[in-house]
Amino acid sequence: MIGLLDLQGGVVEHLDHLDRLGIAARRVKKAADLDGLSGLIIPGGESTCLGRLLRITGLDRTIVARHHAGLKLWGTCAGAILLAQRVVGGEPCLALLDVAIQRNAFGSQMDSFNTLAMVPAVASTPIPLTYIRAPKISDLGAGVRSLLAVDDYHAAVEDDVILATVFHPELTPSLAFHRYFAHKCGILTADGDEAGWHPEDW
Ligand code: GLN
């Protein structure tokens, strides 16, 4: 089962994608909700707000402890910021992933955009990407691999136990990244069915 951190930010769309893959999922609001999970998604939203709520609830320490006990993590956008060990112009929160990350690196909300990219490790066809006040990842530490490098930054990275994306796969029709994370968590999914959308329409 995969959990969705449900303190603030975009939860429903992630749940919908997991549901479409036939993966059991649960909202995580308190420590007990982490019991029995193989993976936890930390969604996009507002990283300062999410970080504060994690500290107030004590979930920050619980998530770090569960991660060290095997819980896989995926952070999208604000979630990626919370996972990073080095935050340009900010304070690290969970500090589990050996990368630097710069908040709001593309400008304001008005500078949000959609694009398409090949991410060979994740899918054999182009994947739609949605950037919303996205950060940029850089300075990958030993053990961190880039899944998608663009210009001067990394848009998707992973180590053996953490996935981080600066964009929002849950806001696109593609299930590819959710399937990829499920596999990382040891959960098998039905074979890829990307029917219903076409790269030329995105
Ligand atoms: N810019 C936001 C932050 O710094 C993240 C935006 C997002 O998650 N879409 O928290």
UniProtKB/TrEMBL annotation:
Q: Does the keyword Hydrolase apply?
A: yes
Q: By what name is this protein known?
A: Pyridoxal 5'-phosphate synthase glutaminase subunit PdxT
| Xref: InterPro entries | Class_I_gatase-like, PdxT/SNO
| NCBIfam families named in the record | PLP_synth_Pdx2 (TIGR03800)
| A molecular function (GO) term | glutaminase activity
Give the keywords, sorted.
Glutamine amidotransferase, Hydrolase, Lyase
Organism (species): Thioalkalicoccus limnaeus
List the EC numbers from the record: 3.5.1.2, 4.3.3.6
Q: Which PROSITE patterns match?
A: PDXT_SNO_2
* Top-level taxon of the source organism: Bacteria
